[in-house]
Structure formats: structure tokens, C-alpha cells
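Listing 4. Sequential folding, example run.
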Amino acid sequence: MERPTDPAGEAELATWLGELGADAAQIEEGLRSGRADALAGDVVLERGATLSARDVAERTGIGADRVQSMYRELGVPTPDPDAPQFTEADVMLIDRLVGARRQGIVQGTDLLRVIAGAMERIAEAAVAIYVQGPEETLRQRGSSVLECARSNAGATELALDVGTGLAPLFRHHMRQAVARQRVIQEGVSRRELARLAIGFVDLVGSTELQGRLDTRALGDQVSRFEARAFDVTAAGGGRLVKFIGDEIMIAVPDAVAGCRIVCDLVDAFTDDGTQPRAGLVYGEVLFRHGDYYGPVVNLAARLVDAAIPGEALVDESVVVAAKEEDLAFEAAGRRMLKGFSAPVSVWSLAIG
């Protein structure tokens, strides 16, 4: 929406941007390009960024090329080692990462890439939520550039404050991860393996359904899908590993809890008007960077493809592990599944 010229408003906006920390050149360019509201968020993000990669290297006792390499592995390119891009907090981060490597706690670049992926997803989500929510509301309302700029700056400051305060939350997740690791690795044949129930749940016909929805309705459906998946899985003591389009992958420490979670997920998505189906297998999986791999995972993915809407298919591993519990399984024959050379005996888990 193009806003009418407002000299008085521009003067007030320029004064406010200056108080926020923007310099004269930034303000002039922001007003000229019509991006003064976006400039407000940029100024907040640049606060305290007075150090270059070379400065960080000098402060931590390593080479500038190594600082650049570590940030590249963390998903942050630093093409100019002399550009002011970093803060005192960066010095502390690099110093601790270097110390962790020297002590052998962190080896290679695997952890840095995992951190990069997680941070990138959080940042992308935070920006999208603001742009599609509060910012769009302001634009539709015809708000002034100053009002939009203040909102942008406030949202950016809040996001950074939340990021800074995530340490207590990380502590809780570390505690849960340690406890989960002790359970899922008990008695496994090798340290990189974990014994888990791996499940997949997908929504039959969701591609066709989504093709009929407008953007807002599609966004609402995706939000409900993600919220229900997370809530039901967490309530049952499982972990939602990832979303794969209209499919989710879950990991649960034992087969009984896995059965109950997939039943609850099928029920929850059915209540939402979709056609869910599930597959669940129990056994040893390769555990790497928070994800799981191997034949157990592959079989669970094939079982969900073989299930009909409203059904959860399991294999013998689940039936044996859950035989002492009040769960009902109905033999569903032997199936030839993609990637498996021999027929697989499957059972349908009673739902409801």
C-alpha cells in the first residue's frame, strides 16, 4: 500500500530513527526507499556489533580464518574479516567453543551444523510470524510508517531478549535429553544405537485438500496440524522428531507408549476432519544429531504408506513388546513393502 507524502511525519520518523541509533545516511536511504520501518529492525540487530572477525580472532587467540570457518559452519557467512559484525557475546561463544574442542568435548563440525540448522529455523519462524501477523495487520490498517517502524523495532528487541533468555529452557531440554538417552540406550549393542518405537502419521488426501484452500485457510490448517501433533506427542511422553510436509515422525522410548500416541494422533486428526493413518515399529535405530535412521525407521515409513485412512499398522516387534498390555492387535496379513525383499507380517492396532 503506497502511503501519501507526509513531510511532518517524515521529520518525526527521522528524529525517532536517530534516537534509536540510525545514522544520517541510513535515515536518508530509509526514507528515500520507503523502507524506514524495516530500517528500525536493522538498527536494533546491529547494536553492539562493533567487532570484526579479525577482532574476535585476536581476543580468542585463534586465526581470523578459523573464526570465519566456525561461523560458516554455524550458518553465518563472514566474507569480510574486517567488517564489524560481532559483539562481545560472540567473543565468549567462540572462546567456549574453542575450549570445548581442546578438551575433546566437541569433535569435528557436527554439533555446529546442528546448532546452525536449529537457530536458522527459529529465526525464520520468528520473522515469518511477525511479518504474517502484526506487520500485516498494521499495513492493512493503513498505519503510519512511524507506527510500523516502532512495532518492527519492538518486535526485534523482544525476539533478541527471548533469545538471550533461552538458557533456562535449554537446561530443561538438556535434562530431558539426558534422561531419555539413558533409557533408550539401555542394553543396546553399540553406543550410537537407541532402542525406540518409531512412528509415522500422515494425512491422506491432504495435498488435494490444500489445493482447494486459500492461503489463509491453508495456514490455519497447517497451524492446527503442527499444534495437535506436538501436544499429543508430548502428552504421551514421546518426541516429535520432525515434520515432513503433511507427515510427522515420532520417537517414543517404549512400544506401549508409542501405540497409545499413534492412536491418540489418529483420533485427534480424525476429529479435525482429515484422514490420518499411521505406522509403528520398535527396535534399534541409528541415533545421530537428534534424528534416527535404519531399517526400523524405513519399515515404519513403509507401514504408514500401506495403512488405510483411520488405521495404524505395526509389525511383530510392536506386538511382542506390547503383549502384556491392554492393547488389541488384529492380524492384517503379510505385505510386500518397497525396499524389503521378503513379505512383512503386519497387524492393525485397534484405535478408539
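-- end of first protein; second protein begins --
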Amino acid sequence: MQAGKLKHRIEIQKQERTPDGGGGWALAWVPVATVWAHVEGLSGREYLQAMAVASTVTSRVFIRYRTDIKPAYRIVHGADELNIRAVLATNDKTYLTLMCDTGPT
């Protein structure tokens, strides 16, 4: 992948426990990094779930190599929230391929 193809600005987020002000904890998405990426839609489907039509989109996101990205994280790209399902490094560790979907976390 050429660096010039990394033309989408994305934010990578992770879920953390944060104090809720009442002595308990709440889960919140907090930023890990904002990076340049190439976001590519692969497939989409609709299905029936709980008597309602639901949909999911599978995407592939390319970013420069990092060691702090995990499959439990998500990507925010514009109005889209993509759940990272797999993190794949190139052999020379120059780029990561993040396999993502828009389904439930």
C-alpha cells in the first residue's frame, strides 16, 4: 500500500470504565489515536433479528503499523462506527489491515 492512499482520517477508540459520579462506573469510548487510513467497504447484508430488519457492513481498513490496536476497539469514520474484529500486520510490519463490521459490539 502506498502512503498516498491513506486519505481518510479516522479515530481509533477503546472502551474504558469511567466514574459515573454516583460511586459507580460507566463504560465509555475514549480515543486511542487519530490516524490516516484507507477505508474500503467489502460487503453488506440485511437479516431479520428480533422481528426487525437489521443490517451489517464489512469493511477493511489499512493504517500504518502500530502495536496498540486490539480487536475490542472501534473506528469512527465520519458518522460510521466500525467494530474491529481482527488486526493483521504485513510481514514487514509497515501496515496493519483492520477487518471491521458495523454489527453489534
